[in-house]
Design a protein that fits this description.
about 675 residues; seven-stranded mixed sheet; elongated
Length: about 675
């Protein structure tokens, strides 16, 4: 008995020791948690219950010079379904009605949608996609459908909202307006005005501390660490939507008619260098045309005969010949070091003056004029070309500018034929915008101005930054030379290669160009033509300069020359600008070959004149889109109802008073 009591006593001691050790361990752990690791666990608890949230800044808008909205931010919605959330009875009661409603809206069969929803419930999917890229109106409709109207917890509806950039004028000038996007790797990339002006447009995000109070619910904590977002500034571009519309459709018509690969057109204000229109259209596999690449800015290529103005300017400046100097075209063909230079006119032009040689674009005459006078000192000719700025990039705000190439006598690849080939625009490479800048200098009486696409950065009615006209070269050549160049450029249209474009009622001046491309590749099998026309109008008092370039027109009709392909685009633009009266500054309708935007976006514009903004017409727009637009203009908005805007309390055209309230009645 005594032995048994002893054993019990041992076990009691053992249990007591174990409990004591456990108590010590707990005490040590609690001490560590409280004192050693206390800061870590307190921070962890705080992270799980208190978190910083980003308050995104509103991105600024991009406006045209005449006040039309070119780019703005609007909300975009995606609807998903938590198939586990609804109770079985609720799900079965509403599934048929929900499928019918979704079927009508999404243009799918009700039975297929019902099968998808049932499959999602069987698979216990908690994030099943119903629809994406929805407008506010569409989102509100779906939100009111059977089952979904019960909300997130009972009906399983999940709503995701994001902000997207929209172009109210559609696909026109899309590449120039540009974009900014987040790449998968985490960095940003983009093109055009959106990318170049992103530091102004994007603003600065704010932050706010929030405390978790329930599942998925967070309450703001107002403290000194809260940072208010700074909205982005607005960018005022030089684009005029009326001129842009004319240029776009004139180019599109010609590209379609000639089944060309791609083309571009730029219209620039002579005195300021402000680009009023720029269109870049490339052909897709289905034969339609899209804004794919900024060819005018990015594509450097051999210009062909439009480069002959460089010849004439240099010759006249050096006084090595005059416009009256006579040259023999030698039957339309001459040779240099075994290589032929031919005129497009079979048999040549006989003996003609230098001016006439330029007007009819005689290769033989222009090459002789350059080679005979500069063969012993080609650097003198090339130095002139360099002084015109054609060997350097323009250096605009945008990325991706094409690199010009002007052969230099010091280059290792300079050869005996480099100089004569330069004389008729081969062996050199420039972008259309560079060529236009050069011709614009002639139109501007010798003053070369830098092309410009942005005039102002604004915060409401306050100017943040002003972009003034930048003079690149105050005197590209003498006034005497300018007068002679203007005379021959006018004669090109009156009685030269551009005579098909002549109208006694309207004056234009310019130069045609027809260059062969890819003539040396694949044995000449890939050879095609580049047709161009560059000049200005009116001829006697230039207000606008313009260049049109069309690549790879169909040669089946045998009228692939610059005067036939590019010239009519130039003429149509010039005549429309000065003879037609625009009925609106809004592009109401795009050509059928260009993908159309939602019609809501083509029905409004914001007028900006002398720093003053006016109330836009938002009738017919979806409610959320109208709210986003008006709030971006600094107005307070109250919307009554659901759907599209039927009435607005402030009439279109009224002056906007900041923080004023506008009431929208939705249908």
């Amino acid at each position: 008995m005594a032995v048994e009591d002893k054993h019990i006593s041992y076990r009691t001691y053992l249990v007591a020791i174990v409990i004591l050790m456990m108590a010590v361990a707990i005490a040590v752990k609690l001490t560590n948690i409280q004192w050693v690791d206390g800061d870590h666990y307190r921070e962890l608890a705080k992270e799980r219950t208190v978190k910083n949230f980003v308050i995104p800044a509103n991105k600024g808008n991009i406006y045209s010079a005449d006040g039309s909205l070119l780019a703005t931010s609007i909300p975009n919605y995606a609807i998903r379904f938590d198939a586990v959330a609804p109770k079985t009875e609720t799900f079965e009661k509403n599934i048929k009605l929900l499928s019918d409603s979704l079927g009508k809206m999404l243009r799918k069969s009700s039975s297929s949608i019902q099968n998808e929803l049932r499959r999602a419930r069987v698979n216990k999917s908690r994030y099943y996609l119903i629809a994406r890229d929805l407008s506010y109106t569409e989102y509100m409709k779906i939100k009111g459908f059977p089952l979904f109207s019960l909300g997130a917890y009972k009906g399983g509806i999940i709503v995701e909202q994001r902000t997207v950039r929209e172009h109210p004028i559609g696909k026109i000038a899309e590449r120039t307006i540009g974009y900014e996007r987040k790449m998968a790797e985490g960095y940003s990339d983009g093109k055009g005005i959106e990318w170049a002006c992103r530091e102004y447009l994007n603003g600065k995000d704010g932050k706010i501390l929030k405390q978790k109070i329930a599942k998925g619910q967070w309450k703001p904590i107002r403290d000194s660490n809260e940072v208010e977002p700074q909205d982005g500034y607005d960018v005022i571009s030089t684009i005029d939507v009326y001129i842009q519309d004319i240029a776009h459709h004139a180019l599109l018509k010609q590209l379609e008619e000639y089944q060309a690969d791609h083309g571009c057109v730029v219209v620039m204000e002579t005195k300021t260098g402000q680009i009023k229109a720029i269109s870049n259209l490339g052909r897709a596999n289905d034969g339609s045309y899209y804004e794919t690449t900024n060819y005018a800015y990015a594509e450097s290529h051999e210009p062909g005969s439009t480069f002959k103005l460089v010849d004439l300017m240099t010759i006249l400046e050096d006084k090595v010949a005059d416009t009256s100097t006579v040259y023999d075209s030698h039957g339309g063909e001459i040779r240099y070091y075994g290589r032929k230079v031919r005129d497009s006119h079979e048999g040549g032009y006989g003996k003609i003056s230098l001016a006439r040689g330029f007007e009819v674009s005689s290769n033989t005459v222009m090459v002789q004029a350059v080679y005979n006078n500069y063969k012993n000192n080609p650097s003198k000719f090339v130095d002139h070309v360099n002084s015109y700025g054609l060997n350097k990039k323009l250096g605009l705000l945008f990325r991706g500018e094409g690199k010009p190439m002007i052969p230099q006598p010091s280059d290792k690849n300079w050869s005996n034929i480099s100089l004569p080939w330069m004389a008729f625009g081969y062996g050199v490479s420039v972008t259309p915008l560079q060529t236009l800048t050069y011709y614009n200098a002639v139109a501007n009486n010798g003053v070369m101005v830098k092309p410009q696409l942005v005039t102002e950065i604004k915060a409401w009615n306050k100017t943040i930054r002003k972009y003034n006209t930048e003079v690149m070269n105050p005197r590209i050549c003498s006034p005497e030379t300018i007068l002679k160049l203007k005379a021959v450029l006018a004669n090109v249209v009156k009685k030269g290669t551009g005579s098909k474009l002549y109208s006694k009622d309207f004056s234009m001046a310019g130069k045609t160009g027809t260059a062969q491309a890819n003539y040396a590749s694949n044995g000449g099998k890939d050879k095609h033509y580049v047709s161009s026309f560059v000049g200005y109008f009116p001829a006697d008092n230039p207000k606008y300069s313009c260049i049109v370039v069309v690549h790879k027109p169909n040669t089946a009709r045998n009228d692939y020359y610059g005067a036939d392909v590019a010239g009519p685009v130039f003429k149509r633009i010039a005549q429309k600008i000065f003879t037609d009266t625009p009925s609106t500054n809004v592009i109401k309708k795009l050509d059928g070959s260009i993908p159309k935007q939602d019609s809501n976006y083509n029905s409004y514009f914001v007028k900006v004149q002398k720093g003053q903004q006016y109330v836009p017409n938002v009738k017919g727009m979806s409610g959320m889109d109208a709210v986003a637009l008006l709030e971006n203009l600094g107005m307070k908005v109250k919307a009554v109802g659901v759907g599209k805007v039927k009435k607005q309390s402030l009439q279109a055209g009224q002056n906007i008073v900041k923080n004023s309230t506008i009431l929208l009645e939705l249908s």
